[in-house]
Records
---
Amino acid sequence: MKYFHSIRWRLQLWHGLLLVFVLTGFGFTAWQLQRANHLNRVDHELEQRMGIIAGMVRPDTSPPPDRPRPRGFPPANRPPFGNPFPEPANLRLPAREASLFEGIPGQEFYYIIWLPNDQQGVLSSSAPPDAPRPERIPGPPAFRSRGTFRECFQATPSRECLLVGRDIRSELADIRRFAWLLGGAGGAVLLLGLAGGWWVSTRALHPIADISATAAKIATGDLTQRIHTTDTDSELGQLARDLNNTFARLQASFARQSQFTADASHELRTPVAVVLTQTQTALARERPAAEYRESLAACQRAAQRMRGLIECLLTLARLDSAEVPATLESCDLGGIVGEAVELVRPLANEQNIHLDLELSQAHCRGNAGQLAQVASNLLTNAIHYNRPGGSVRISVICEPDAALFCVSDTGMGIPPADLPHIFERFYRVDKARSGAQGHSGLGLAITQAIVHAHGGSIEVASEPGQGSTFEVRLPTGSKNPRSASWTND
Ligand code: ADP
C-alpha cells in the first residue's frame, strides 16, 4: 500500500498502464490485419475454385456474375470444352481443373457436392470424409472456419450444395507466429518503457530527497543548510533554488531579529542602570532635599529615554505587522511639513541654523500623524547633524503622480561605507557620540517603514563634509500596496 503513496510508483503505474493499453491496442489491430490478410487470400483462392465447380455442375439461369472470371478459368455458365453439363454425381474434372485441387499433401484444395436430397454426391480424393453439410446455404458463396479447415460453400439453382475447402494449418501457424512476435516485441517495448520511466522519474525526483533532508536539518535549527542541486533547469531545480533563497531570507531575518533584540536590550540597559545607580545612591544615606531632587531628575530623564525607546519599538512593531495606518485621509504634505518646521525651528535657532523653505501644496493620501513623524525625523536629523551656522533647505513639490519632500543640509554628511546601512535599526554612524546624546538609531528605520507603508520611497545622497539630501516620494493617492482600504476619491 505504501507504494501507492510514492509519486515515483504512481508515475510508474500510470506510465505502465498507458503503455500496456497502447501496446495491446496496437498489437491486437496488427494481429487482426495479418489474420484478415491471410484469410482473404485463402478465401479468394477458394472462391476461384468454387467458380469452376459451380460452372461445371449445372448452368444457372441467373445473369452472369459481376465479378470477372479469373484468367484461365472457364466462364461460370458454360460447360467446359463444349460438353453438356454432367450430373453432379458424374462430375469428372478435366485434368487442368483437377490440377487446381492437387498440391502438397495436407494443403491441397478439396471439394464436396451434396445432392438436393442431402446425399454426398461427389467429393475429391483429398476431402475430409467427415465434413458436415452446411446448415443454411446461401446462393452466393459463403465462408466458414472449421477447426483447421477454411471452407467456401454455395447452393446451385438446382439445390445442390457445393463446398470447396482447404486445410489452412500452415496459415494458422503463420498467424500464431506473428502473434508471438507481436507479444515479444510488445513485451520488450513495455520493459524498455518501464525501465526508461523509472530512470527518468528517479533522476527527476532525486532533488526531493535532498530538499527533505535539508528541511529536516533546518527544522533542528541549523539555518545555514542549503539544498545542493546540480539540475538547475528542471521544475524541481527551480523549486530548490527558490527554497534556498527563502532559507537565506529566513536566516537573514532571524539574524536581524536576534540583532534587534540584542540592540533593544542594550539600549534599555543604560537608562535602567542610571535609575538603579541614582536610587541606590539616594537611598544609601540621608541626603539634603536638593540631592534627592537631582537624583529624581536623573531618573526622570532615564525614564523619558526609556519611554522614547519603547515608543519607537512599538511603532516599528506595528509597522512590521503591516498594520494599516489608522485613518487614511487626503493630506497636504506641504502643510504637514510646514507645521513640523515650526516645531523644530527653536532647535534650529538654538544652533544658529538657517531654514530655507519652498513649500507648495502637494496632496497625498496617508496618515497625517505618521507623515508628520517622517518630516520631524528628517528635519531633526538635518539640524542635529549640521554644522553650527549651517542651513537646511526644505522643499515640498507636487508632481503629476507623487508628492516630493526634500530635506537638504550642509552638515557633516555620511561616509559612503555607512550610507547603505543608515536605514537599519539601531545603526548609527558615530555610535559612541550619538549613543551618549540619546540617539538610538531608530529614527530613519521608522521613517523608511512609514514611507514604505504609504507605498512611497525614500532615498539619500550624501557627500562627507558637504551635507546630505533625503528625498521622500509619496504617491498622490491611487493605491497603497499594504493597505486594502487605500482607495481613490
Ligand atoms: P539617530 O537617532 O541616531 O539620529 P537615525 O536613524 O535618525 O538615528 O539616523 C541613523 C544615523 O544616520 C545617525 O546616527 C547618523 O549617523 C546618520 N544620519 C542621519 N541623518 C543624517 C544627516 N542628515 N546627516 C548626517 N548623518 C545623518
Note: The first helix runs from residue 7 to 57.
---
Amino acid sequence: MTAVGIDAIEIRSGKLKLDLPGTFAPQKGDDPEKYTKGLGLTNSSFPDVYEDIVTMGANAAKRLMDRKGLTPDDVGRIDVATESAFDHSKPVSTYIAGCLEGVYDDDFTHANKGERKFACVAGTQAVDDAYNWIRAGRNRGRSALVIATDTALYARGDPGEATQGAGAVAMLIDADPDLVELSIHQGYGSKDETDFLKPNQQFPSVDGKRSMQVYLSRMREALEDYESVSGKIYLDDFAYAPFHTPFPGMVRKAALLAYRHVIRDTTHEDELAGEIGRQPREDEYADREAYEEAIRGYMDELKTTDQYRTWYDDAVEPTLGLAREVGNWYTGSVHIARVSALRNALERDREFVGDTLLVASYGSGAQAEIHAETVREGWREEIGALDVDEQLAARYDLSWDEYEDVHDVHEYDKDLDREVEAFTPPDSEFVFTGWGRMNERQYEYVE
Ligand code: COA
C-alpha cells in the first residue's frame, strides 16, 4: 500500500508577542513562575493589526507552495481548520484561495474547498479527510492543502487570557510523502461536553478546569480505542509523543496519565513496583472514590521516578518547545508539537528515518484522536527549511498598553475610538485591508 501522509509543513506565527512573565504577570499581580513553571509558557504570539486567520494561513500556504515548487494545478483540495472563523457561510478556505490566486498565474477552480470545525481537533480531522481522499483514489494525482489557522484570543480578564496565541500551520498531504506517513489505525474518545464553546460569540466561554478533566478522559478513551486496533503499545515503540498543547502544563498531566496507562501489565510496571508499588486495580477497592484516591497517590509517586522522568524528558518535553514561545494555536497546536519534536531530532542529529511518533489530538466539546506517524526519508530537509526561529526572533514585543490596543483591534464588536497603527511593516505578505460592500473581509499582497 502506498504511504500517505504529510509531505511538507510550514508555520506562520503572528508578528507580535506578549511576554507573559515580564509584561502580563505584573499587570495581573501574579508570580511570573505561575506562567513559566505552572502553565509552562514564556510568550504568546499575537496578530498585528493587518493579520488574521486568512493572512496567516495564506502566508504559510504560499511559502509552502513556493518551497515545494507547486502551482494551484498541483493542489486538488484546500481544507481549513479553525475555531476563529468570522463567516458562518463562506469558508475561510475560499478567502485563502482568493489570496493565493492573486499571486499565481493559474487558479483553484478545480479544487474542492471546505472548512472543518471541531475545536482544536479539527486540524487533525482535516488531515484525515485529505488522507481518505487520497486513499480513495479521488485525488487525480493532486495533493491536498490543509491549513490550521487560529487567533486564540479570550475576553480580557478571562483566565484563558494567559493561554492566548495566534498562528497558522500549512500542511501538504500527499502519497509517498517526504515528512511522515500516517498510520491507518486511529483511536477515538468522543462525548458531548460543555467545556469550551463559542455560541454566536467571538471569544470563548470556557470552564478551564473542567476542560482539563474532559481532555484527560477523552485521551484515555482514545488510547484504549487505539490499542483495540493496533494491539498493545509500548513506550519504546515511539520516539516522541506530541500532544495537543493548550499550554505545556496540560501536557504534563496528559503525559503522566498516558504513561500510567501504557505501562500497566508490562515489565515497566514490574520494574517500578519495588520503588512505588504496583498500580491500584479497581477491583481491589471498596468503591470508586477509594480507588481514585489510590490512583492519585500512585501518580504523584510515579512522576518522581527516574523511569518516568527519562521518558518524559526524551519523548514529551521536546514537543513543547514552540508552544512555550507562542501559546495556544488551537487547531495548529498539535501540529506545532510535531514540528517541535522533529526540530529536536534535527538538533540532536538523530538517525530518525522509520522511527514513529504517537500523535494525540484533542478538541473541546469534546473529542480526542490518537494515531501513529512514521518518519520518512525527506524529514531532515523539510524541517531544516523552516524559518520559524527567524519569525519568532523578529516578533514585536508588546508593552501592556500596546497589548490592550491590539486586543481591542481584533475584537469585532468593539467600537474603537482611536487609530491603532501597525507595529511591524508588512513585507512580501498578504495583509487584511478592510471590510467590503457585502461585509466581507478583503486582502491584498504587499511586496
Ligand atoms: N509557581 C509555580 N506554579 C504555579 C504558581 C507559581 N507561583 N502559581 C500557580 N502555579 C500553577 C498552578 O498550581 C497550576 O498548576 P497545576 O494545575 O499543575 O496545579 C498552574 O500554575 C495554573 O494555575 P491556576 O491557578 O490553575 O491558573 P488559573 O486558574 O489562572 O487558570 C487555566 C489556568 C488553564 C484553567 C486557564 O488559563 C484557562 O482556562 N485556560 C484556557 C484553557 C482552554 O482554553 N481550554 C480549551 C482548549 S483545550
Note: DSSP finds 15 helices and 15 strands in the chain.
